[in-house]
Structure formats: structure tokens, C-alpha cells
Design goal:
heterotrimer, A mainly alpha (269), B mainly alpha (299), C alpha/beta (375), A: 269 residues, mainly alpha, MetI-like fold, globular, B: 299 residues, 12 helices, 68% helix
């Protein structure tokens, strides 16, 4: 007999799993439904189909501006974080050194710090330095919180790589930088891209930390948060929410599939 | 693997190893400047060594003493802890069967289903909270549906759904549930099936096998999952500010208000922030010790 | 041979170190241009003397057609003001202390005395403001300290009670409606320490609610805590309140005149000015203040003069729903006219209302309000 689950148990679990999945996706589905609803207040009964809200949000200059700003901040902060993450991962993937545990802890600690504390702390830092909150301060903050993710993604991949490949290059006379560039880097490229993607999505969606460091320009989450208080903007916000949520779901699935395929191919090569 | 002959004579003079500090220099400096130093500054504000407005100030524990002596802020902290504990317990209780099903039922599509479960967590946090605020209002989706189907009269909407502790806990639970299944899944996956088979060979019932083998072995995953949701939710302020109303006001909101509203009190705000950080750090250290994460040694 | 050794473990030569360093520093290049741009802007500001205005959100360059300061732009077309955001007066104070140097900013009337005595501001020269003579004399007086004009009034409004006539039946024209046990879960308070503790003090009959003693403040605070369970949420932004009224979540709230104008489009609502005993609504007035040692003295006056014109006033009333200090500015909406009691020049002062005023113990009020919220 299967000691883990009986047949009925399995059936029950399957139903439970399905219910939970429905619960998880229901709000997204509800938003989807109401994004096509004619009335400007989301409530039953439905009042007819319209594409108006999608049209409106595409032509909403402030919203577009916020989306662009978020994309820019996300791109810049992810590039910086990935670069720093590569450096850190290369150093940490080798043998131990004195203080390695402490350094690893430091590099990963932004993962556990509550954003309210980090936000306040950075706000005070910039206040003491006399720096005004701006997109630059937001970017700096995003690098701090994205960096641990990049290390968590890149370092395991580095450890996985067959050391003998790098050793062979070394034996053939290649210096460490050349070895990195021609051997290691291509092998960890999927992980790097994965890290960039994680960083991008984290930064793009980030509200909590950003709310402390933002100046007058708006990122998309900042725009959303204040738009939640404008009754007239709500339908457009719902439309753009649907687009963002569905797009990110597609991207997540596609990225995961692609990453596994790419790594499998590299292993086989 | 290479030979194991006697160590070769040291021919070269050891030059200082620049590689590791060289590589780590930038990332570590970034974090020191933008992470460690800011926290030190918070500490300085909490001791009134630094202050917002000019005037006499110097090292003092006054703000700390006032906070720890059991005033309203400590009380609010405990209230937030209570809310987080409840949410975490419920979420872990719901996630466990899900992870169990994925890991131990032998279903072939387990990674696909796992991705299906986790995917919402990787989409936008704010938008998922927004979705609930649309659903829960007095004229929101749930209530208007109830009016429409005649289950409730439009004069008596379910008011506790939004702007309440319930709303905060529901939304926080919803946000973290997908993520929490992961550590439990990983731990259950790595349980040696042989143990379960052995239990079966010894005529153990399913219940006994679960209680004596599976559950204890999955304990680290459960603890991990619990802390994965408890630690972030204790300091939460975004969800409470959107759906919490007056009764869903949490510790994180208080910190934000002390720095922003009315007449800011950076000294007290820093005390609250630092206290939260200390509590979270202690919990994390306990957790890390418990799991022996860090230098993974092959079994 | 060291078995654990790898190529990377070889000692890097100094040349390799430099190469690596350059690679890593590449990331820093991205931040470079942004910093350079900032430096360029500050140099530009000093050279051309661009006016720096610190104001609340919505009053800066995002304002449609720069409506409130069009006259200024016409006079100085090449000197568009540079705006610094303030989230509230305390935030402005903090920013000024942190090194921001706007030429003028806009706290509200309760802070006039504080800033006047702080040494951070200087009085205006009213002869340079052509529209000064049209401004409401009671508001003008409120902007004075020691006989000097420290604040030029601009926008204003009331704190009063907005309630649904069809759902709510107040026992009297009193602030007590905000604390009425019959309407649990349908009440919204405003997130401000002074308003709440002052109203509580008024209700409890204290002689000077703006300067309560410790014992009185304790009573006010405990009163608020005892009534907090009736409150659905505490509003911070007007549109949050408007949405809550529109969706029927809230029936009673401390609100401003425009909230009544919006709410009455959907529901039968009343904008009640409390009048029982010594209770009155509270009037708030925005005050332009001029910072000490500003190098753009005349530009600042021109800006404020543009703000003070009747045309600007009418725009403000029609678009933002606030009153304007210029007595000639009348809104298109008769509803707003009524809500602001604009035909009565004494609307903002006794016997009709309490003009918001200096709160000497503001920090204590703030702390106690935080305790109310935490409770």
C-alpha cells in the first residue's frame, strides 16, 4: 500500500489543492472580469462589456510615465545588482575563507530586514548626507534588496559548473579573467539572466521601500497606491492591473521553462 | 582526483590573496554604506545622539525606557505579533497538505503544479492587495453579489470584510500562502522513501507513518515556512494602510506615522524601528541555527 | 600541488586587479550622469535665480496650465519656478533644517506663530503685492505676528461634519456626531493630531482646546480611545474620503467643503457646522511664508501676487474646491459658495468658526494622537 496517501486521501488532497488554486487565482480572475465591465464602480450586477478602460489607461499619460519610470529604475538597479552579485558569487563559490559566514550573512541580510526599517534607515542616511529623495535614491535602495536574490541564483549555478572545465582552461594558459569570460560566464549566463529578471520584477513592483525614498517622480507602484484613492481612476487601474498580472504570470512560466531547457542543453554540451 | 603524495616543498613566497577581497569589495561596500551605516544612524537617532531639529541633545536611553516600560507602542507591537502569529499558523496549516500532496502523492506533474501554486507570489504584491480591496468593500464584489442574489439586503452589507483586522489577515494570508508551500515541499521531497516503506513493512498505519515519520522529518520545513511568513508580516504596513482601517492598524504603520505625520518624532520612531529589527534578527538567527544553513556539508 | 586549487586561486597580478576593478566600476558609470545632471541644475538655479517654491502635492508643475501663477509666468516667462514637495508643515521644517532652501513655502495658519518666531522666515512687504487689499481682512490678520505680515493667506476651508441625511439623525448640531454610538463602523475621522484632540477638548468643554493642560489632554485622549471602535478608518487624503462616501462605506465624517459638493451629487448629505454651546467648525487657511535671506525677494512677491488674484482664486475654487482669500473670487458652483459661506466675510472667524491657531504644545498633541492610533 502507499503509506503516504490512500486513494481517498489522494482524491481529497486533489480537491483541496484545486480549491486553493481557485482561491489564489480568483481575485485575478475577478479583476479580469471587471476590467471589461461598463460601470466605473466594480460591483454586481455586471453592466455590459467594454474595452474602454484598456483604451483609457493606454492613453493615460501619467500612468504611462510611471510605467516608464519604473522600467528604467528596474533595469538600472537590476544591472547594478547583477554585476555586484556576480562578483560576490564568484568569491563565495570558492573554498571557505575566514569570515565567509559573516560576509554571506551580510550579503543576504536584506532578505530578512523589514522594509519599514530599511526604508527609515536609508531615509535617515540621505537626510544626514543632505541628499534629496529622488529616483537615484530609489535605485540605490532597490540594488540593496535585489542583491541577495542575485547571489542566491548565481552562486549555486557557479558551484554546479564542472570545475574541470575551468581547470583545463587554466592548464592551457588562460588567465583568470579570460577563463571567466570564455568558460564560466557563458555557462552561468542563464542564471545571470534569471537573476536579472528576478531583480527587474522585484524592483518594478516594489512599493514599501520606495515610498520612503521617492522624490517627485512616480514609479508605477507609487502611482497605483495614490490612484487607489481616486474613484475615477479605479477602472483604468483595474485594467492595467490585469495586464501586469497576466503578463508577469506568462513571463514567470516562460522564464522557468526556458531556464530549465537552457541549463539542460548546457549540461549536455 | 589528484594524488595524495606528501605536500610539495614550498617554492614560492606566498603573496597576499587579493582575489577574494577584490571581488567582494564592491558588493560588501555597497551594503555597508547603504545598509549597515543607515541602521547605525537609526540607532544614533534612537539614542538622541542625532536629532531632527536643532537643539540640545546627547546620548540618552530615555526613549528606549519609555518604549520598553509597557506603553501603547509596546502594546501595539504585541498586537501585531498576535496578528502575524495567527496568519502564519493558518497559512502553514493550509500549505502543509498542499506540499504533502505535491511531494508524496507521486503525481507526475508535481513541478508544474508547484509552479502553478507559486506563480501568484511572483506577480505584483500591490496589485493583489488592490484586488482584495475591490472585492471586500461594502459595495464591492462580494457584497454586491450577495445583494444581487438576495442573500443579504443592501442595507446590511457584510461590513467586517474591509477596513478591519480580518481584512488585513485575509490579505496577508493570501499574499504569503503560495510562498510558504515551498520550504515544506522541499523538506517533504527529501524524505527518504525507504523510511516510509520500512514503516509500511512494519505494518504501520498511514496515520502512524505520518505522525512518526513524515511529520517529524518535515519539521524543519514547517518551521522555515512559519518564519518565512511571520517575519515579513510583523513589520507590514502597506496592507494595513490599504485595507486595515482603524482596527487593522499595525506596528509598521506606527513607525511610518512617527516619521511622517503631524509632528514627527524621529527618536521614538527609531526606537520602534530598531526594536523590530532586533526581534527579527534574533528570530532569524534562531531559525538559521535550527536549520544549520550556511556551510552545507555533504551528508 | 594543492588539490583544492583552481585557476582563480592563483594570485592576481596588480594588472589583473585593475582590470577587474574597471569591470566592476562600470556599474558605477550608470549613476554618474545622473549626479552630473543634478549638479548642473543647481548651478543653473543659482545663476539664473530660479524661484524655488516649496508647496504641497498638486500645487506644482503638475497643476493644469500652471493656473494659479499664470500672471507670474507672463511677467517672468524665462523663470519657471522650481518646486520642492512638502508632505506637511513638519516635513517642510525637516527639509529646511536638512538644507533645502526654498524661497517661499506654504504652511497653514496654525503654524504662523511658530515659524515667525523660529527665525527661519521674514515678513512680507505688502506694498509689493497688488492684490493684497482684496484679501479677506480676518485671514490677513491671522497671518500677522507682532504687527508684521508673516503670512499671506491663500486657500482656506472648514472642518465640519458631513453626514448622510437619509441614514443619520443627529441629536443636535454638535461635534458629538463623530462619536455617536448609534453609527458604529460608519464614521471616519481625519488623520491629524491637532484637529482631533482640539475637537475632543471642545466637546469636553475645555476653555482653550488648542492649549490644553496635561490633565485635559489625558481626558481628551482617553475620550478618543474610547470612541475609536466606532471608526471605520481614518482618512488621510480627500479622495479616499470621497470614495468611501460614494461607495456607502461611510455615513459620517469630518470633512471639508468640497467633500460635501461631491457627495451631494450621489446622496442626500448635510454639511453641518456644529453650533451647540461654544462649539463651532474650525477654519483653516493656507499661508505663504517667505524664508529669511532669500536672494529672490521680488520674484517671491510676484509669485504670491499672482496667486492672490481674483482670477486665480476663482480657478482654485472651481477646480480644487477650496475657498480663496481674495474676497472678489466667487466660484461658479453655487453649492460651493454656500458650503464656504462665501457671502459672509466673517465666515472664518467668531462667532461663526474658530480660526485654526498656534498650538504651543504641538509635539505633545502629536504624541498623544499616535497613542490613540496605536490603542
Amino acid at each position: 500500500m502507499d503509506v503516504a496517501l490512500s486513494r481517498n486521501g489522494r482524491r481529497l488532497m486533489r480537491v483541496f489543492f484545486a480549491l486553493v488554486v481557485v482561491f489564489l487565482y480568483a481575485p485575478i480572475a475577478i479583476l479580469l472580469v471587471f476590467s471589461f465591465n461598463k460601470a466605473s464602480v466594480p460591483s454586481f450586477p455586471l453592466s455590459g462589456f467594454t474595452l474602454r478602460w484598456y483604451h483609457d489607461f493606454i492613453h493615460n499619460g501619467a500612468m504611462r510615465g510611471a510605467l516608464e519610470t519604473s522600467a528604467m529604475v528596474a533595469a538600472v538597479s537590476s544591472v547594478i545588482a547583477v554585476a555586484l552579485g556576480i562578483l560576490a558569487s564568484v568569491a563565495l563559490a570558492r573554498r571557505g575563507f575566514r569570515g565567509k559566514g559573516l560576509v554571506t550573512a551580510l550579503l543576504l541580510s536584506p532578505l530578512v530586514i523589514p522594509f519599514v526599517v530599511l526604508g527609515i534607515a536609508m531615509l535617515l542616511l540621505f537626510h544626514v548626507l543632505g541628499v534629496s529623495p529622488s529616483l537615484e535614491t530609489v535605485t540605490i535602495g532597490h540594488v540593496v534588496i535585489v542583491l541577495p536574490y542575485t547571489i542566491l541564483v548565481i552562486m549555486p549555478r557557479l558551484e554546479q559548473i564542472d570545475r574541470s572545465l575551468a581547470e583545463a582552461a587554466y592548464d592551457l594558459g588562460a588567465g583568470p579573467l579570460r577563463t571567466f569570460r570564455w568558460i564560466t560566464f557563458p555557462l552561468i549566463l542563464p542564471a545571470i539572466l534569471s537573476a536579472f529578471l528576478i531583480g527587474f520584477t522585484t524592483s518594478f513592483d516594489e512599493y514599501a521601500l520606495t515610498s520612503f525614498l521617492i522624490g517627485t517622480r512616480q514609479t508605477f507602484p507609487i502611482f497605483l497606491y495614490s490612484a487607489l484613492r481616486f474613484p475615477t481612476q479605479l477602472p483604468q487601474v483595474i485594467a492595467v492591473a490585469v495586464v501586469v498580472l497576466c503578463a508577469s504570470l506568462v513571463v514567470i512560466v516562460a522564464a522557468e521553462v526556458w531556464r530549465r531547457r537552457a541549463e539542460a542543453r548546457l549540461e549536455a554540451a | 582526483m589528484g594524488g595524495t603524495a606528501a605536500a610539495p616543498p614550498r617554492r614560492r613566497r606566498r603573496r597576499p590573496d587579493l582575489t577574494t577581497p577584490g571581488l567582494l569589495g564592491l558588493p560588501v561596500s555597497w551594503l555597508v554604506v547603504f545598509f549597515v551605516v543607515p541602521i547605525a544612524i537609526v540607532a544614533l537617532y534612537s539614542f538622541d545622539v542625532l536629532a531632527l531639529f536643532p537643539g540640545p541633545h546627547g546620548f540618552t536611553l530615555a526613549a528606549w525606557r519609555m518604549f520598553l516600560s509597557g506603553g501603547p507602542y509596546l502594546h501595539l507591537f504585541l498586537k501585531s505579533v498576535e496578528m502575524s502569529l495567527t496568519v502564519s499558523a493558518i497559512v502553514v496549516a493550509v500549505a502543509y497538505p498542499l506540499a504533502y500532496y505535491l511531494a508524496l502523492s507521486g503525481t507526475r506533474r508535481k513541478y508544474v503544479l508547484l509552479l502553478l501554486l507559486i506563480a501568484p507570489f511572483l506577480t505584483s504584491y500591490l496589485l493583489r492587495v488592490l484586488a482584495w480591496s475591490v472585492i471586500l468593500g461594502d459595495q464591492g464584489v462580494v457584497n454586491s453579489f450577495l445583494f444581487w442574489t438576495g442573500l443579504r439586503s443592501p442595507d446590511h452589507p457584510l461590513s467586517f470584510l474591509l477596513y478591519s483586522r480580518f481584512a488585513v489577515m485575509l490579505v496577508l494570508g493570501y499574499v504569503w500562502l503560495p510562498f510558504v508551500a515551498l520550504p515544506i515541499f522541499v523538506t517533504l521531497e527529501t524524505i527518504d522513501r525507504g523510511l516510509l516503506e520500512a514503516a509500511s513493512d512494519l505494518y504501520a498505519s498511514r496515520r502512524q507513518a505520518f505522525l512518526r515519520v513524515t511529520l517529524p522529518l518535515s519539521a524543519p520545513g514547517v518551521v522555515a515556512a512559519f518564519l518565512f511568513v511571520f517575519i515579513p508580516t510583523v513589520g507590514e504596513f502597506v496592507t494595513p494602510s490599504l485595507v486595515g482601517g482603524t482596527s487593522g492598524y499595525m506596528y509598521g504603520n506606527q513607525i511610518v506615522d512617527l516619521f511622517g505625520q503631524g509632528f514627527p518624532d524621529w527618536e521614538t520612531g527609531s526606537v520602534l524601528a530598531l526594536f523590530l529589527l532586533v526581534v527579527v534578527s534574533v528570530l532569524t538567527l534562531v531559525f538559521v541555527r535550527f536549520l544549520r544553513v550556511g556551510e552545507a556539508r555533504p551528508a | 600541488m594543492d588539490v583544492e586549487g583552481e585557476p582563480f586561486d592563483r594570485r592576481l597580478s596588480r594588472a589583473d586587479m585593475l582590470k577587474l576593478g574597471a569591470l566592476a566600476a562600470g556599474a558605477g558609470v550608470v549613476a554618474g550622469p545622473a549626479a552630473a545632471a543634478n549638479a548642473a541644475i543647481s548651478r543653473l538655479t543659482a545663476e539664473t535665480g530660479r524661484l524655488q517654491v516649496m508647496d504641497w502635492a498638486g500645487y506644482d508643475n503638475t497643476m493644469p496650465h500652471h493656473a494659479m501663477f499664470q500672471a507670474y509666468l507672463r511677467k517672468y516667462p524665462h523663470n519657471k519656478p522650481l518646486f520642492i514637495n512638502m508632505t506637511n508643515e513638519a516635513n517642510a521644517l525637516a527639509k529646511i533644517h536638512a538644507g533645502a532652501h526654498p524661497d517661499l513655502f506654504r504652511p497653514y495658519v496654525g503654524w504662523v506663530k511658530y515659524f515667525a518666531e523660529s527665525g527661519l522666515v521674514q515678513p512680507w512687504d505688502t506694498t509689493l503685492i497688488s492684490n493684497f487689499k482684496y484679501l479677506n481682512p480676518f485671514m490677513v490678520k491671522a497671518g500677522q505676528h507682532n504687527g508684521k505680515q508673516y503670512g499671506i493667506p491663500d486657500d482656506w476651508g472648514f472642518d465640519a461634519i458631513l453626514y448622510r441625511k437619509d441614514k443619520v439623525h443627529p441629536k443636535s448640531r454638535s461635534w458629538s456626531l463623530l462619536y455617536d454610538d448609534r453609527y458604529k463602523g460608519k464614521i471616519s475621522w481625519y488623520d491629524d493630531p491637532v484637529e482631533n484632540l482640539t475637537i475632543a477638548g471642545m466637546l469636553l468643554g475645555f476653555k482653550n482646546p488648542w492649549n490644553q493642560t496635561d490633565a485635559q489632554l489625558k481626558q481628551s485622549k482617553n475620550f478618543l480611545i474610547s470612541k475609536k471602535h466606532l471608526v471605520k478608518f481614518i482618512w488621510e487624503s480627500e479622495t479616499q474620503l470621497d470614495q468611501a462616501f460614494a461607495s456607502g462605506d461611510i455615513w459620517i465624517a469630518l470633512a471639508w467643503p468640497y467633500d460635501w459638493v461631491l457627495a451631494r451629487k450621489k446622496y442626500p448629505v448635510v454639511y453641518m457646522h456644529p453650533h451647540v454651546g461654544r462649539q463651532r467648525p474650525i477654519a483653516w487657511v493656507g499661508m505663504f511664508m517667505l524664508l529669511q535671506n532669500t536672494p529672490r525677494f521680488h520674484l517671491a512677491h510676484a509669485y504670491v501676487d499672482a496667486w492672490s488674484s481674483a482670477k486665480s482664486g476663482r480657478w482654485l475654487e472651481d477646480n480644487y474646491g477650496y475657498g480663496h482669500a481674495n474676497t472678489l473670487a466667487k466660484p461658479s458652483s453655487s453649492a460651493l459658495l454656500k458650503a464656504l459661506d462665501l457671502t459672509n466675510p466673517r465666515a472664518v472667524t467668531l462667532p461663526n468658526a474658530y480660526l485654526d491657531r498656534d498650538v504651543p504644545r504641538r509635539a505633545v498633541y502629536a504624541q498623544l494622537w499616535d497613542e490613540v492610533k496605536a490603542a
